[in-house]
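Model it.
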Amino acid sequence: MNTLEIFSTPVVGDDAGCDHARADLTTDKVEQRALHALFRQADVRGLIFDLDGTLIDSADDIVGSMRDMLRETGYGEVPQDYFPENLHGTSDGIIRDVMRDMGWAAPDDLTELKATYYRIYAERGHANTRLYPHAWEILRQCSEHFSLGVCTNKIYRNAVSVTDTLGIRQHFAAITGADSWSAAKPSPVPLLETIRTLNLRPEECLYFGDTSVDAECAARAGVRFVLHESGYGDPALHKQPCHHAFKQWKELLTV
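Modeled.
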């Protein structure tokens, strides 16, 4: 199975996959707005985006799938009001952290648990995942001026699936996941390889993310980091530098 996607021409999502994007457009279409000065820096040619907590709010589907997986595999019930601190790691890390929080010993080999989680997550069809307001308009305008890519700790097939479902896949020239390269974030490898795939250099790019994992990855790769402060975050985030920070995507649009 491919773990890297490169588009030479835009891939247009089907109508059924654009409902979430259309819902966001209803709040954005009052008038055309220009992009923030962040996007007018002369040395910026590429924009790379994290997904969960950055462009999309997917917590309900991730946590719900974890809850269903742990019930199905016989470990027990995860409380409905539980929200994990770690939504930024790989599936291995999230599973281990959730099980630790529940007081359950995780097996050394997570193959079976991950397979069950991936199946359940796919079956949910991203039903409770949404684009953050105004993210669609940012992507639409930016794709006219920059090379766009995705660098996420989701596995590749889930990254492609959710961008397709939300009607944004066509904006990206490259999509890569946690299984696309030899290491996942916070290693700089995924971001550097995604940038290389776009035929760009690290100093020509901005990386948008919401957690310390994203910030550390960007710092180690020599890429300017842009922080979405209304994402999932984590306690270590305040220790990491950022080039720019914003709370809502509409802040990056000007009338």
